[in-house]
Amino acid sequence: MSTRISRKTGAGRTPRRPRNAEATRQAILQSARLAFTRSGYDGVGVREIAQGAGVTAMLVNRYFGSKEQLFEEVVEVTLSAPGILTSQVTAGGRELATLSRNVADALVARTAPEATPMDGFLLMLRSAANESAAKILRRKFTTHFEKPLADILPGVRPSERAAMFLAIIAGFQVLRQVVGIPGLLDAEPAALSARLQVLFDVLMNEDPSSTA
Predict the structure, then answer these.
(1) What CATH class has 81-204?
(2) Distance CA 102, CA 86 (A)
(3) pLDDT, tens digit, for every residue of 30-47?
(4) What's the pTM?
């Protein structure tokens, strides 16, 4: 009986599978998201991202052009996912009466001691020191959060008030979930939520002393 050498193996190796373009793209994005949230924009290189995705650095650049463009895509995908504020502002004002309470409750729950920090927050926290990354973050946060919130706020200076709304959310996340100051860690969640709601309500409601 003759022995046939399988074309599958040169020396016991399995054949290379045809590359699925979309699957490869998603693998790169996932690797980049993990890397950027863990180490920030300056703390990770394209080669590390490529290694995490099981591809070459050349292929990463072929799909995304540059590290900066890849970071922008990661931020876009991350901020598009449901979060503390996203579902509220995308309701188009239909939930305006309960927005302060809903956001306050979600913020307290998402920053609980046992909770894992959200990827969007980690991207901001660990990458904002880089000028190019900060520019991307500024544009994406404006598009996804500040402008949609300003569009549904009644009264004057909605963009200013929407930005302050976001500042409270970000500041609360940093001090409770990263710094861990006792006043926020030891407080009763219901009490924290109630006080946050008061602050958000101030920004939600039109200030009668203001002029357009």
Answers:
(1) mainly alpha
(2) 11
(3) 999 999 999 999 999 999
(4) 0.83
